Amino acid sequence: MKVLLEEKRKIILALLMGAALLFFAVIMYNTYDAYTNMVVEQQQQHLLLISRAVAQNMELYISDQLRDIRSVTQTPGFLESMEYYYTVGETARMKEYIFSYMQSHQQDPVRIYVLDRYGQEIFHYNQYPFSGELDEDALGLAESARKRESGIGTVFPIDEERCGMTLVTNVYGGNGYLGTVISVMDLDVLYKRYVANLNFRDQGDIVVKDGNGNIIMHPDSRMLQFNFERDIPDLDSMPQYESLRRMLKKQYTNEEGTAVYDSYSGGILPREQVIAAFSRMNLSGNSWYVSTAMPYSKAVELQNNMLKRFGLLAATVLFLVIAGGTIIYHLLRNRQKLRLETKYLKEINSTLEELHQSREEARHYQKLTTIGTLAGGIAHEFNNLLTPILGYSEFLEEQLGRKSEYFEDIAEIHKAGTRAKEIVEQILPFSRKETDTTSFKSVNLDVIIRDALKMIRLIIPSNIRLEEKLDDGNVNVYGNATQLHQVLLNLYSNACQAMEKDGGLLSVKTRRISREELPEHCREMADGDYVEIAVCDTGCGMSEEVLHQIFNPFFTTKEAGEGTGLGLSVVKDILINHSGAVSAQSRPGEGSCFYIYLPVTIGVCAVQIQRQPEKREEVKQISIALIDDEESVVKYLRKRLERRGYHVDGYTDPEAALEDMVSGRIHWNAVIVDYMMPGIKGTALAQRMKKLQPYLCVIMITGLVDREALELRQDGQIDNILIKPVNFEELVAAIDKGYRRQLDMIEY
């Protein structure tokens, strides 16, 4: 009896275990199936986003192209040039507009046709570089002109590896229809710009079809011009094409959607089941279809990996059920695992702190980017102002001579202007358009310290006293005097602000020390002697927490709007560039001391070369156009150039100068043009003038050297680039050099 009960118990236990295993298997299968469907649906939505983005990008691109060419053809000048063509048959003015448009859209149209009102070609321009021949019969030029419908014209094969399309723009003037402008676009360029970059790594294709179902963009060139309905025999009847037929019907009747179907390509590509999403691009009555497809196997590959993990999990669970007696043992072993997890969590916490620091650095970079843009604009405006200041002061020095009672006063003006110029050059490193014009040389540190104290005495309140105690060694350092002057002024200013309320003592001391006497954190600097500059105040002082942050960019203890937090950061950067260092000591209520350490150099400081009075040369028959939107710059340069014997026509309106040149009323040997002007940039003006007069000497003056200007200089479109404030002798030398080159080219 006991044996039978024991056998029944075993059978029931076995059945229960079998039922539990079956139930577990069903749950696992349903979970996997639901998860697979969910991931496939998510993948379809992701593909739909890509298709939608590609369709919108292409629609926006084509609309922009049509709008751009329409804006050119509707300008009064172009309309007048077409009507002029019908009157006298002259096409030069029309060609100039079309050529300028193609120059500004060098990666867009590969060819532009201009047709008359009868559909006959007037002329066409090719883009450079463009490789390949166009079958003009396939373009349908006459048919597009006859329809008089602006928008997408025809889609045609350029060669076996790419297709093209035409964009039609009809031109209407006061006398009605004047003609048609047809732009030929390379769809391979469009595909690489707006489609290929969104194609995911070896997991699928982005395909574009025209309104007739022909494939016009595909990563595999063999599929170009393929049409499912035309090139797959028995597509409408064979049962294996059922899923493909449903997808095509859905695609042609809906704006967008998703599908899972079996893909066929007439033997060009292997058959496979794919997940796809599509979106329609509608423009001017034309519809294109953007499809994004990826193999189903790739989509479920992740799920297959998850299945393996689920299987492992199931085996683990089964093992735990069978081997329940070992749970206590495993719990004891888990202590070690917990310790490892604690260590892992600490590492995660450290990683999160690093991530937070990275975000702070990103915000800092964003601030610096904003400062860069602002610095570029400030530098440009200041250089415009400094040009007449430096120029007139230099001119007065030369005219009055050293014996004049006003010579020293004018020299101070010129000296201050020069220092302002160098300070502007220190602003430029914050800009993307940095101009490396600063230079290092041997300078006398005592002179710089006293000069900075002289300036600070003019602005400090009466309750602050100054104490100066400089070493007798007459120390020289190798560096930039303006930058070091900026460092000292910054420290003096901070000290005065700390004592502004209650007054106090600002002391400046220097002493020569050896490398061994440097603070501990500065011992890694090079061997040799150093000079220590101590700038101390008896102001409010700083806490330890503030002291550790004062050299960080954008850190400030001032109220919002009263400081940027860049001062001490710039001080530190300048001293690092001078192979030096800075440190600070302070306590709340006891004042602060800043210590600057700079390596001592051997040698005599550079002596400023005195300018010689300007010599009047014989009158030169050189005619110059001076173009700058700043009237003060034009007035100054014109006056000095005319005193040298040049004939100068000054303009503050670049369009007026161009109009005089086009009219032929005035002929110039050289043009001096500003880079940044309202209405038209100096580079564009220089190109147009160079086109009208190839031998013209073009000199560009600018506060910021732009890459575009450097490229034109390299191509010979610009003969010379001078930085504002302009050195007058350099300008004269550039004019003479350009004039001699002009004479040589004419004689040749």
From TrEMBL:
List, in alphabetical order, the Gene Ontology terms for molecular function in this entry.
ATP binding; phosphorelay sensor kinase activity
Out of the domains of life, which is the source?
A: Bacteria
Q: Is Cell inner membrane one of the keywords UniProt gives this record?
A: no
The topology of this chain with respect to the membrane is: Multi-pass membrane protein
What EC number(s) does the entry state? Answer: 2.7.13.3
Annotated GO CC locations? plasma membrane
Subcellular location per UniProt equals: Cell membrane
Q: What residues does the Response regulatory domain cover?
A: 623-739
Q: Which SUPFAM superfamilies match?
A: ATPase domain of HSP90 chaperone/DNA topoisomerase II/histidine kinase (SSF55874), CheY-like (SSF52172), Homodimeric domain of signal transducing histidine kinase (SSF47384)
Q: What is the role of this chain?
A: May play the central regulatory role in sporulation. It may be an element of the effector pathway responsible for the activation of sporulation genes in response to nutritional stress. Spo0A may act in concert with spo0H (a sigma factor) to control the expression of some genes that are critical to the sporulation process.
Residue ranges annotated for the Histidine kinase domain, each copy included: 377-602
- List modified residues, type 4-aspartylphosphate: 674
This enzyme catalyses: ATP + protein L-histidine = ADP + protein N-phospho-L-histidine
Protein name stated in the entry: Stage 0 sporulation protein A homolog
Query: What keywords would UniProt list here?
Result: ATP-binding, Cell membrane, Kinase, Membrane, Nucleotide-binding, Phosphoprotein, Transferase, Transmembrane, Transmembrane helix, Two-component regulatory system
Membrane spanning residue stretches: 12-32, 310-332
In terms of InterPro entries, this protein maps to:
CheY-like_superfamily (IPR011006), dCache_1 (IPR033479), HATPase_C_sf (IPR036890), HATPase_dom (IPR003594), His_kinase_dom (IPR005467), HisK_dim/P_dom (IPR003661), HisK_dim/P_sf (IPR036097), Sig_transdc_His_kin-like_C (IPR004358)
Q: What is its main location?
A: membrane
